[in-house]
Amino acid sequence: MKVAAIISEYNPFHNGHEYQIKKLREMLGQDTAVIAIMSGNFMQRGELAIADKTIRARAAVECGVNLVLELPFPFSMSSAEFFAKSGVKIANEIGVVDYLVFGSESGDISELSDIASITTSEEYALTLDALSSAPEYRDFGYPELCQIALSRIYGKEIPREYLSPNNILAIEYIKAISAFSSSITPLTVRREGCGYLDILNPMAEFQSASAIRQELLSENISALDYVPEKAREIYFEAIQNGKMPADASMLDYSVISSFRLNSTARDVDIHDAAGGLYNRLCEMSAEATSISSLMSMTDTKKYTKARIRRAIWNTYFGVTSSDVRALPSYTQVLAMDKIGRSVLKRIKKVSDFPVITKPSSYKDLGDEVIKQKELSGKADSIYGLALKKPNSGRFPLTFTPYVKE
What we know:
The protein is an alpha/beta fold. Strands 1, 2, 3, 4, 5, 6, 7 and 8 form an eight-stranded mixed beta sheet that branches. The two termini are 20 Å apart. The radius of gyration is 21 Å and the shape is globular. α4 (109-119) crosses α7 (165-179) and α5 (122-133) crosses α6 (142-154). The chain has helices at residues 15-28, 53-62, 80-93, 109-119, 122-133, 142-154, 165-179, 209-217, 229-240, 252-261, 277-284, 291-298, 305-317, 321-325, 338-350, 367-383, 395-398; strands spanning 3-8, 33-39, 67-71, 99-104, 185-190, 331-336, 355-356, 402-403.
Protein backbone atom coordinates (compact mmCIF):
# COMPACT_ATOMS: atom_id res chain seq x y z
CA MET A 1 0.00 0.00 0.00
CA LYS A 2 1.40 3.38 -1.05
CA VAL A 3 1.16 6.31 1.34
CA ALA A 4 0.65 9.84 0.07
CA ALA A 5 0.86 12.95 2.24
CA ILE A 6 -0.87 16.25 1.57
CA ILE A 7 0.22 19.36 3.47
CA SER A 8 -3.08 21.15 3.81
CA GLU A 9 -5.25 23.72 5.51
CA TYR A 10 -8.72 22.48 4.53
CA ASN A 11 -10.04 25.90 5.41
CA PRO A 12 -12.68 24.60 4.73
CA PHE A 13 -12.50 21.21 2.99
CA HIS A 14 -14.25 21.77 -0.35
CA ASN A 15 -14.93 20.12 -3.71
CA GLY A 16 -11.46 20.97 -5.02
CA HIS A 17 -9.85 19.07 -2.14
CA GLU A 18 -12.05 16.04 -2.79
CA TYR A 19 -11.05 16.24 -6.48
CA GLN A 20 -7.34 16.28 -5.56
CA ILE A 21 -7.71 13.13 -3.43
CA LYS A 22 -9.60 11.33 -6.20
CA LYS A 23 -6.96 12.31 -8.77
CA LEU A 24 -4.03 11.17 -6.64
CA ARG A 25 -5.69 7.78 -6.15
CA GLU A 26 -6.24 7.56 -9.91
CA MET A 27 -2.52 8.22 -10.34
CA LEU A 28 -1.17 6.03 -7.53
CA GLY A 29 -3.82 3.37 -7.02
CA GLN A 30 -7.19 3.26 -5.29
CA ASP A 31 -5.69 1.58 -2.22
CA THR A 32 -3.33 4.53 -1.58
CA ALA A 33 -3.51 5.71 2.03
CA VAL A 34 -3.76 9.49 2.36
CA ILE A 35 -2.27 11.38 5.28
CA ALA A 36 -3.18 15.05 5.64
CA ILE A 37 -0.65 17.13 7.55
CA MET A 38 -3.17 19.83 8.31
CA SER A 39 -2.71 23.29 9.80
CA GLY A 40 -4.02 23.87 13.28
CA ASN A 41 -6.13 26.91 14.07
CA PHE A 42 -3.94 29.59 12.46
CA MET A 43 -3.35 29.67 8.72
CA GLN A 44 -0.30 30.27 6.55
CA ARG A 45 -1.46 33.75 5.48
CA GLY A 46 -1.96 34.90 9.08
CA GLU A 47 -5.70 34.22 9.30
CA LEU A 48 -7.78 32.29 11.80
CA ALA A 49 -9.16 28.99 10.53
CA ILE A 50 -12.85 29.19 9.63
CA ALA A 51 -13.46 26.22 11.94
CA ASP A 52 -11.55 24.56 14.75
CA LYS A 53 -8.93 22.01 13.66
CA THR A 54 -10.94 19.12 15.15
CA ILE A 55 -13.96 20.01 13.02
CA ARG A 56 -11.91 20.39 9.84
CA ALA A 57 -10.06 17.13 10.51
CA ARG A 58 -13.33 15.24 10.98
CA ALA A 59 -14.63 16.64 7.68
CA ALA A 60 -11.44 15.57 5.91
CA VAL A 61 -11.66 11.97 7.14
CA GLU A 62 -15.33 11.77 6.20
CA CYS A 63 -14.36 12.88 2.68
CA GLY A 64 -11.53 10.48 1.87
CA VAL A 65 -8.48 11.28 4.02
CA ASN A 66 -7.34 8.35 6.16
CA LEU A 67 -5.25 10.08 8.80
CA VAL A 68 -5.04 13.75 9.80
CA LEU A 69 -1.92 14.92 11.64
CA GLU A 70 -1.50 18.47 12.85
CA LEU A 71 0.92 21.04 11.50
CA PRO A 72 0.96 23.04 14.74
CA PHE A 73 1.19 26.76 15.46
CA PRO A 74 3.39 28.74 14.81
CA PHE A 75 4.62 26.64 11.87
CA SER A 76 1.15 26.60 10.33
CA MET A 77 1.29 30.41 10.27
CA SER A 78 4.66 30.92 8.60
CA SER A 79 5.96 32.12 5.27
CA ALA A 80 5.80 29.66 2.37
CA GLU A 81 9.39 28.59 3.06
CA PHE A 82 8.88 27.63 6.69
CA PHE A 83 5.34 26.33 6.17
CA ALA A 84 6.68 23.94 3.52
CA LYS A 85 9.78 22.97 5.51
CA SER A 86 7.69 22.25 8.59
CA GLY A 87 5.17 20.10 6.75
CA VAL A 88 7.85 18.21 4.82
CA LYS A 89 9.81 17.62 8.03
CA ILE A 90 6.79 15.90 9.60
CA ALA A 91 6.13 13.89 6.43
CA ASN A 92 9.78 12.81 6.31
CA GLU A 93 10.15 12.07 10.01
CA ILE A 94 7.12 9.79 10.36
CA GLY A 95 8.87 7.39 8.00
CA VAL A 96 5.99 5.95 5.96
CA VAL A 97 5.31 8.55 3.27
CA ASP A 98 6.08 7.61 -0.34
CA TYR A 99 4.64 10.67 -2.12
CA LEU A 100 4.02 14.29 -1.25
CA VAL A 101 1.04 15.46 -3.30
CA PHE A 102 0.22 19.14 -3.77
CA GLY A 103 -1.93 21.30 -5.99
CA SER A 104 -0.48 23.83 -8.38
CA GLU A 105 -1.66 26.08 -11.18
CA SER A 106 1.30 24.82 -13.21
CA GLY A 107 0.59 21.11 -13.03
CA ASP A 108 4.11 20.56 -14.44
CA ILE A 109 6.41 18.93 -11.86
CA SER A 110 9.42 19.23 -14.18
CA GLU A 111 9.07 23.01 -14.59
CA LEU A 112 8.40 23.50 -10.88
CA SER A 113 11.51 21.44 -10.08
CA ASP A 114 13.63 23.54 -12.47
CA ILE A 115 12.51 26.76 -10.77
CA ALA A 116 13.05 25.23 -7.33
CA SER A 117 16.62 24.43 -8.36
CA ILE A 118 17.21 27.99 -9.55
CA THR A 119 15.99 29.51 -6.29
CA THR A 120 18.54 27.49 -4.32
CA SER A 121 21.46 28.58 -6.51
CA GLU A 122 24.13 31.11 -5.61
CA GLU A 123 23.40 32.99 -8.85
CA TYR A 124 19.81 33.54 -7.77
CA ALA A 125 20.86 34.77 -4.31
CA LEU A 126 23.35 37.22 -5.83
CA THR A 127 20.84 38.47 -8.40
CA LEU A 128 18.21 39.00 -5.73
CA ASP A 129 20.69 40.90 -3.53
CA ALA A 130 21.67 43.12 -6.46
CA LEU A 131 18.03 43.89 -7.27
CA SER A 132 17.24 44.64 -3.62
CA SER A 133 19.98 47.25 -3.42
CA ALA A 134 19.38 48.83 -6.84
CA PRO A 135 17.77 52.31 -6.59
CA GLU A 136 15.40 51.67 -9.50
CA TYR A 137 13.86 48.71 -7.61
CA ARG A 138 13.63 50.45 -4.24
CA ASP A 139 9.82 50.50 -4.24
CA PHE A 140 9.40 46.92 -5.46
CA GLY A 141 8.04 44.29 -3.07
CA TYR A 142 9.87 41.04 -2.40
CA PRO A 143 7.59 38.89 -4.63
CA GLU A 144 8.21 41.23 -7.59
CA LEU A 145 11.97 41.08 -7.04
CA CYS A 146 11.83 37.27 -6.97
CA GLN A 147 9.93 37.26 -10.26
CA ILE A 148 12.52 39.48 -11.95
CA ALA A 149 15.45 37.44 -10.61
CA LEU A 150 13.88 34.17 -11.75
CA SER A 151 13.12 35.51 -15.22
CA ARG A 152 16.70 36.69 -15.71
CA ILE A 153 18.20 33.33 -14.78
CA TYR A 154 15.51 31.10 -16.33
CA GLY A 155 16.05 32.78 -19.67
CA LYS A 156 12.44 33.69 -20.34
CA GLU A 157 9.80 35.88 -18.76
CA ILE A 158 8.05 34.25 -15.82
CA PRO A 159 4.65 35.96 -15.50
CA ARG A 160 3.76 37.34 -12.09
CA GLU A 161 0.65 35.15 -12.18
CA TYR A 162 2.88 32.06 -12.34
CA LEU A 163 4.12 32.84 -8.85
CA SER A 164 0.67 32.22 -7.42
CA PRO A 165 0.37 31.06 -3.79
CA ASN A 166 -0.05 27.41 -4.81
CA ASN A 167 2.88 27.43 -7.25
CA ILE A 168 5.09 29.16 -4.67
CA LEU A 169 4.22 26.50 -2.10
CA ALA A 170 4.82 23.75 -4.67
CA ILE A 171 8.31 25.13 -5.33
CA GLU A 172 9.00 25.31 -1.59
CA TYR A 173 7.83 21.71 -1.08
CA ILE A 174 10.26 20.51 -3.74
CA LYS A 175 13.08 22.54 -2.19
CA ALA A 176 12.31 21.17 1.28
CA ILE A 177 12.30 17.54 0.07
CA SER A 178 15.73 18.14 -1.41
CA ALA A 179 17.03 19.94 1.68
CA PHE A 180 16.06 16.98 3.89
CA SER A 181 17.58 14.51 1.39
CA SER A 182 14.23 12.78 1.59
CA SER A 183 13.22 9.76 -0.45
CA ILE A 184 9.68 11.17 -0.75
CA THR A 185 8.61 11.74 -4.38
CA PRO A 186 6.90 15.06 -5.16
CA LEU A 187 3.72 14.82 -7.22
CA THR A 188 1.48 17.68 -8.33
CA VAL A 189 -2.18 17.80 -9.32
CA ARG A 190 -3.26 20.75 -11.43
CA ARG A 191 -5.74 22.96 -9.61
CA GLU A 192 -9.15 23.32 -11.20
CA GLY A 193 -11.70 26.09 -10.86
CA CYS A 194 -11.50 29.51 -9.23
CA GLY A 195 -8.29 31.19 -8.16
CA TYR A 196 -7.32 32.00 -4.58
CA LEU A 197 -8.66 35.57 -4.58
CA ASP A 198 -11.72 35.00 -6.78
CA ILE A 199 -15.14 35.80 -5.39
CA LEU A 200 -17.84 33.14 -5.27
CA ASN A 201 -18.90 32.12 -8.78
CA PRO A 202 -22.25 30.28 -8.66
CA MET A 203 -21.52 28.65 -12.03
CA ALA A 204 -18.24 27.02 -10.92
CA GLU A 205 -18.00 23.56 -9.36
CA PHE A 206 -14.69 24.31 -7.68
CA GLN A 207 -14.77 27.48 -5.59
CA SER A 208 -11.79 29.01 -3.80
CA ALA A 209 -11.61 28.43 -0.07
CA SER A 210 -11.29 32.18 0.50
CA ALA A 211 -14.58 32.83 -1.35
CA ILE A 212 -16.38 30.21 0.72
CA ARG A 213 -14.96 31.69 3.92
CA GLN A 214 -16.08 35.20 3.04
CA GLU A 215 -19.60 34.01 2.36
CA LEU A 216 -19.76 32.06 5.63
CA LEU A 217 -18.50 35.08 7.58
CA SER A 218 -21.35 37.02 5.96
CA GLU A 219 -23.74 34.31 7.22
CA ASN A 220 -24.43 33.02 3.71
CA ILE A 221 -24.76 29.33 4.52
CA SER A 222 -25.48 28.52 0.87
CA ALA A 223 -21.67 28.65 0.37
CA LEU A 224 -21.69 25.14 1.84
CA ASP A 225 -23.22 23.99 -1.47
CA TYR A 226 -19.63 23.94 -2.75
CA VAL A 227 -18.26 21.44 -0.23
CA PRO A 228 -18.82 17.65 -0.28
CA GLU A 229 -22.07 16.48 1.30
CA LYS A 230 -20.47 14.81 4.33
CA ALA A 231 -18.38 17.89 5.07
CA ARG A 232 -21.47 20.08 4.60
CA GLU A 233 -23.29 18.19 7.34
CA ILE A 234 -20.38 18.63 9.75
CA TYR A 235 -20.00 22.33 9.02
CA PHE A 236 -23.73 22.99 9.25
CA GLU A 237 -23.82 21.32 12.67
CA ALA A 238 -20.84 23.44 13.77
CA ILE A 239 -22.59 26.63 12.61
CA GLN A 240 -25.75 25.65 14.47
CA ASN A 241 -23.70 25.06 17.63
CA GLY A 242 -21.85 28.42 17.43
CA LYS A 243 -18.51 26.73 16.64
CA MET A 244 -18.15 28.12 13.11
CA PRO A 245 -17.18 30.49 11.58
CA ALA A 246 -14.37 31.84 13.75
CA ASP A 247 -14.28 35.63 13.52
CA ALA A 248 -10.97 37.42 14.18
CA SER A 249 -12.83 40.66 14.95
CA MET A 250 -13.94 39.04 18.21
CA LEU A 251 -10.31 39.46 19.31
CA ASP A 252 -9.89 43.08 18.17
CA TYR A 253 -9.73 44.71 21.59
CA SER A 254 -7.50 42.02 23.02
CA VAL A 255 -4.93 42.37 20.23
CA ILE A 256 -4.97 46.19 20.16
CA SER A 257 -4.71 46.31 23.95
CA SER A 258 -1.66 44.07 23.81
CA PHE A 259 0.08 46.40 21.36
CA ARG A 260 -0.78 49.51 23.35
CA LEU A 261 0.50 47.95 26.56
CA ASN A 262 3.80 47.05 24.88
CA SER A 263 4.12 49.94 22.45
CA THR A 264 7.65 51.08 23.33
CA ALA A 265 9.75 51.03 20.18
CA ARG A 266 12.56 48.53 20.64
CA ASP A 267 14.65 45.92 18.90
CA VAL A 268 12.83 42.62 19.33
CA ASP A 269 13.11 39.25 17.66
CA ILE A 270 9.50 38.78 16.57
CA HIS A 271 9.17 36.51 13.58
CA ASP A 272 8.07 38.27 10.37
CA ALA A 273 8.24 41.66 12.14
CA ALA A 274 11.81 42.66 11.27
CA GLY A 275 12.81 45.60 9.09
CA GLY A 276 10.92 48.13 11.18
CA LEU A 277 7.56 46.38 10.94
CA TYR A 278 7.32 45.73 14.70
CA ASN A 279 7.86 49.38 15.55
CA ARG A 280 5.45 50.47 12.83
CA LEU A 281 2.75 48.19 14.26
CA CYS A 282 3.34 49.56 17.76
CA GLU A 283 3.14 53.11 16.48
CA MET A 284 -0.07 52.52 14.51
CA SER A 285 -1.75 50.73 17.42
CA ALA A 286 -2.20 54.11 19.15
CA GLU A 287 -4.75 55.01 16.46
CA ALA A 288 -6.08 51.60 15.42
CA THR A 289 -9.17 50.18 17.10
CA SER A 290 -9.30 46.81 15.34
CA ILE A 291 -7.02 44.24 13.73
CA SER A 292 -8.24 45.26 10.27
CA SER A 293 -7.61 48.98 10.89
CA LEU A 294 -4.15 48.18 12.29
CA MET A 295 -3.41 46.29 9.08
CA SER A 296 -4.66 49.14 6.89
CA MET A 297 -2.60 51.74 8.73
CA THR A 298 0.53 49.56 8.55
CA ASP A 299 0.14 48.55 4.91
CA THR A 300 2.97 49.57 2.55
CA LYS A 301 4.46 48.19 -0.66
CA LYS A 302 7.34 46.84 1.41
CA TYR A 303 5.25 44.21 3.20
CA THR A 304 2.64 41.77 1.92
CA LYS A 305 -0.69 41.71 3.74
CA ALA A 306 -0.01 38.13 4.79
CA ARG A 307 3.27 39.14 6.40
CA ILE A 308 1.59 41.99 8.30
CA ARG A 309 -1.08 39.63 9.60
CA ARG A 310 1.56 37.12 10.68
CA ALA A 311 3.57 39.88 12.36
CA ILE A 312 0.49 40.98 14.32
CA TRP A 313 -0.21 37.49 15.66
CA ASN A 314 3.46 36.66 16.24
CA THR A 315 3.79 39.84 18.29
CA TYR A 316 0.63 39.01 20.24
CA PHE A 317 1.87 35.50 21.08
CA GLY A 318 5.56 36.41 21.38
CA VAL A 319 6.72 34.12 18.57
CA THR A 320 10.41 34.61 17.80
CA SER A 321 12.37 33.80 14.67
CA SER A 322 14.22 31.06 16.55
CA ASP A 323 10.86 29.49 17.49
CA VAL A 324 9.94 29.11 13.81
CA ARG A 325 13.39 28.16 12.54
CA ALA A 326 13.48 25.27 15.01
CA LEU A 327 10.81 23.49 12.89
CA PRO A 328 8.22 21.20 14.53
CA SER A 329 9.44 18.61 17.04
CA TYR A 330 6.10 16.79 17.16
CA THR A 331 2.75 16.32 15.53
CA GLN A 332 -0.55 15.10 16.94
CA VAL A 333 -3.40 12.98 15.64
CA LEU A 334 -6.60 14.91 14.92
CA ALA A 335 -8.69 12.28 13.10
CA MET A 336 -8.45 8.89 11.39
CA ASP A 337 -10.36 5.97 9.94
CA LYS A 338 -9.52 2.24 10.04
CA ILE A 339 -6.85 2.57 7.35
CA GLY A 340 -5.46 5.58 9.17
CA ARG A 341 -5.20 3.50 12.34
CA SER A 342 -3.10 0.92 10.52
CA VAL A 343 -0.87 3.65 9.08
CA LEU A 344 -0.47 5.12 12.57
CA LYS A 345 0.67 1.71 13.84
CA ARG A 346 3.28 1.60 11.07
CA ILE A 347 4.49 5.07 12.02
CA LYS A 348 4.89 4.00 15.65
CA LYS A 349 6.96 0.98 14.56
CA VAL A 350 9.36 2.73 12.18
CA SER A 351 9.74 6.23 13.67
CA ASP A 352 10.73 7.80 16.98
CA PHE A 353 9.24 11.16 15.96
CA PRO A 354 6.67 12.17 18.60
CA VAL A 355 3.12 11.60 17.31
CA ILE A 356 0.77 12.60 20.10
CA THR A 357 -2.50 10.68 20.32
CA LYS A 358 -3.60 12.06 23.68
CA PRO A 359 -3.16 15.86 23.77
CA SER A 360 -2.35 16.04 27.49
CA SER A 361 0.47 13.45 27.27
CA TYR A 362 3.05 15.81 25.75
CA LYS A 363 4.90 16.49 29.02
CA ASP A 364 6.79 13.20 28.74
CA LEU A 365 8.28 14.05 25.35
CA GLY A 366 11.17 16.39 26.17
CA ASP A 367 11.78 20.10 26.65
CA GLU A 368 11.49 21.14 22.98
CA VAL A 369 8.17 19.36 22.49
CA ILE A 370 6.86 20.83 25.76
CA LYS A 371 7.86 24.35 24.69
CA GLN A 372 6.29 24.01 21.24
CA LYS A 373 3.13 22.27 22.46
CA GLU A 374 2.49 24.88 25.14
CA LEU A 375 2.91 27.75 22.66
CA SER A 376 0.50 26.03 20.28
CA GLY A 377 -1.90 25.44 23.17
CA LYS A 378 -1.91 29.14 24.06
CA ALA A 379 -2.79 30.04 20.48
CA ASP A 380 -5.55 27.43 20.42
CA SER A 381 -7.04 28.70 23.69
CA ILE A 382 -7.19 32.26 22.30
CA TYR A 383 -8.65 30.99 19.02
CA GLY A 384 -11.52 29.53 21.02
CA LEU A 385 -12.57 33.05 22.03
CA ALA A 386 -13.22 33.96 18.38
CA LEU A 387 -16.23 31.64 18.25
CA LYS A 388 -19.85 32.64 18.90
CA LYS A 389 -19.89 29.96 21.55
CA PRO A 390 -16.32 30.09 22.91
CA ASN A 391 -14.34 26.96 23.66
CA SER A 392 -12.93 26.35 27.11
CA GLY A 393 -9.28 27.29 27.47
CA ARG A 394 -8.66 23.65 28.39
CA PHE A 395 -10.20 22.31 25.18
CA PRO A 396 -6.83 21.99 23.37
CA LEU A 397 -5.71 19.48 26.01
CA THR A 398 -8.96 17.59 26.48
CA PHE A 399 -10.33 16.88 23.00
CA THR A 400 -10.37 13.32 21.69
CA PRO A 401 -9.18 12.64 18.12
CA TYR A 402 -12.09 11.71 15.83
CA VAL A 403 -12.16 8.05 14.79
CA LYS A 404 -14.34 6.98 11.87
CA GLU A 405 -15.34 3.34 12.34
